């Protein structure tokens, strides 16, 4: 059944998780231990919270500089990866006495923005300010490949595609979304989100900022049986894009195969099913009840039916939950205005990494440490937010009780 209304600001005040001494930057939730949360800050500290207890479990002072990203090792959440400046450190959470890193990787030349581990726990990807992505072989403990010369600016986000074991997708502040074959070190699909978007029927500008890619998210392996093979993009112009990656891959493949051989004729690339083709991208902007400023982060919901909702947070002091899958269901007739499921107003911004400050009609870049959010597989305190304060907030998502 369709949802009757959008719920705004669930009545229970957010739980305040204290332990950081500076602005909280990143948070991740354990899958196998659903009550466990790890968060980081600008002072190089990692805090561990067990949502079943009141106080912080323990803290790790692991760097002298801001921590930009955290991730667990897939299949072994006792291993934590931490990025600070151009370094990736590896920790075993059982070694509470020393907190000395097991390994340290210094392959990036510029500041790292995000790290992520692939589903087979064999590689780490680290995206940096120089536009490079380092693929690190964590079994052999060496650099496997460098992906470069495709992003023209900061590479802000990277994700492995769990259904394509040798591919990653990256997003950058050049407004480009790029799919790579990292075994070859080459891109095979480039999407420029800064160009006019045919899916945006309103024709009105979203906001003053460009369509920078601040963050991307892809479904986890255990979501793939119910969730399309998609990529979600948090954009600097306030838009959340949902893109069917397999459709984009087929388009790129068909275009490559349609190139005429010597003396031949090009093949037609017209899709067989036009209706299906029109539903390969979903464009969620302010006309759909979306963000009115840059979107800094996106994530899939882990609570309830995993992956049913996309959660986005932005510079407009708002967190939103989108029931995105209704748009791609063949038997559903709905428009974008039916997809916003939940809106939470925050007291502070969730800052994107780059903001623009006008000066005599010329914009200058101001580099910032961005904020993140994550979801947990629990029935309560299942939406964790890092904003511009040093206190991490845990919200009760109303979506647990509003299943369609």
Automatic annotation (TrEMBL):
Stretches the record annotates as Disordered: 254-279
InterPro entries: WD40/YVTN_repeat-like_dom_sf, WD40_repeat_dom_sf, WD40_rpt
Keyword Chaperone: no
Superkingdom: Eukaryota
UniProt keyword annotations, A-Z: WD repeat
WD repeat residue numbers: 288-323
Positions with biased composition (Basic and acidic residues): 269-279
Name of the protein: Transducin/WD40 repeat-like superfamily protein
Record organism: Artemisia annua (Sweet wormwood)
